[in-house]
Specification:
single chain, 296 residues, Porin, two-stranded antiparallel ribbon, 4 helices, globular
Length: 296
C-alpha cells in the first residue's frame, strides 16, 4: 500500500509546474565533484627552475641535468662541449602533495636536499580555484676546498638556502604560466658589500606543440642591487619531449649553474655577447609503490 501511495505522489509532482523532469531527476544526482587540473607542466621543472609538479605518491624520479660551456668559446673547446658540468638527483613522492629530493652537482661541488609541498591546486566544479600554489625549499652544501686555510671556517659558512613560492595556472590545455617569487640566502659572501639575501622573481611558461612535445621558456629577474650589478638575469628557452616514462628537456641558457642556489644569484653569461650554452634535463620515473587497485 505504501508503495502505491508513493507512486501516486511522484506522478502528481511530476505533472506540477514546480517540479519539472529535470528538477525531479536532480534529487537523485550525486553532488558535484572537484575536478583537479592535470599536467600543468610535463615534469618537476619548467627549464632550470622548479615547476608546481610533484612525483605521484610512491613514485621516484631520477634526474640527470647536464650543462656544457658557452658556445662562443670556439672550436678549440668544441664550442663549449669540453666544459661539461652535471647534476644527478632523486625526487620521491611521499604523498601526492609532498616531495623530497637530494642531488649532487659538479658545478661548485654542491650537495643539495629539498622539499616541495602543494598548498593549493587549480580546480573546477565543487572547488573552484583559478591557480595552483606550491612551496619549494632547498639547502645546498658547498664542498669546494677552502680558499684560505689560515682562516677559521665553520660548516655553516658552506650553506646556501633557497625558498620559493610557485604560482601556476593552466590557461588552456596547451598553455601554462608560472611565477616564482624566490629568496636565496648565503651564509658567507666574498665581501661585506655582497648580498646575503638575494630576492628574485621567476616567470616561465609552456606551450604544447603536439601531444608529447612543448616549447618552454623561463626568466629570473634579480632585485637585490649589489648582486644585480655584478651578475646577469637567467634566461632559458627549450623543448620538452615525453617518451613513455622519460621526459627529455633540451634548452639553451646563459647560466652555467644548475641549482637555484647557483643560477639565480650567480649567472655570469650575457646573451647579448653570445654567452649561451646548451643544456638538457633527463628525468625517468620509477613506480615503487603501486596503488592497491593497480592492474597490469
Amino acid at each position: 500500500m505504501k508503495q502505491i501511495i508513493f507512486v501516486i505522489i511522484l506522478t502528481l509532482l511530476s505533472n506540477s509546474p514546480l517540479f519539472s523532469q529535470d528538477s525531479l531527476m536532480s534529487l537523485f544526482d550525486s553532488p558535484p565533484q572537484a575536478i583537479y587540473t592535470q599536467a600543468t607542466f610535463k615534469t618537476t621543472r619548467v627549464v632550470l627552475g622548479q615547476s608546481v609538479e610533484n612525483p605521484g605518491k610512491g613514485n621516484l624520479i631520477f634526474v640527470i641535468q647536464h650543462h656544457f660551456g658557452y658556445v662562443n668559446k670556439g672550436a678549440y673547446d668544441f664550442f663549449g662541449l669540453d666544459q661539461a658540468t652535471i647534476r644527478l638527483g632523486y625526487e620521491y613522492g611521499i604523498t601526492d602533495w609532498l616531495m623530497v629530493g637530494i642531488g649532487r652537482s659538479s658545478y661548485g661541488k654542491i650537495y643539495d636536499g629539498n622539499i616541495k609541498m602543494k598548498i593549493l591546486r587549480q580546480s573546477s566544479g565543487k572547488k573552484n580555484l583559478p591557480f595552483s600554489v606550491s612551496y619549494f625549499g632547498s639547502i645546498g652544501i658547498n664542498t669546494l676546498r677552502l680558499p684560505d686555510k689560515t682562516i677559521n671556517y665553520y660548516f655553516t659558512n658552506r650553506l646556501v638556502y633557497l625558498n620559493q613560492i610557485l604560482v601556476a595556472r593552466k590557461l588552456t590545455p596547451g598553455i601554462s604560466l608560472q611565477i616564482s617569487p624566490s629568496l636565496v640566502h648565503r651564509n658567507l659572501v666574498e665581501t661585506p658589500l655582497d648580498d646575503n639575501n638575494i630576492w628574485a622573481l621567476g616567470a616561465g611558461g609552456r606551450s604544447k606543440i603536439s601531444k608529447h612535445t612543448s616549447f618552454n621558456a623561463e626568466y629570473f629577474y634579480v632585485f637585490s642591487k649589489q648582486t644585480a650589478s655584478e651578475f646577469h638575469n637567467t634566461f632559458s628557452v627549450g623543448f620538452d619531449v615525453e617518451t613513455g616514462g622519460h621526459v627529455f628537456q633540451m634548452y639553451v641558457s646563459n647560466s652555467q649553474g644548475i641549482t637555484g642556489q647557483n643560477f639565480i644569484p650567480g649567472t655570469t653569461g650575457n646573451w647579448l655577447t653570445g654567452d649561451i650554452l646548451i643544456g638538457f634535463n633527463l628525468t625517468r620515473t620509477f613506480v615503487l609503490n603501486k596503488p592497491k587497485d593497480f592492474k597490469k
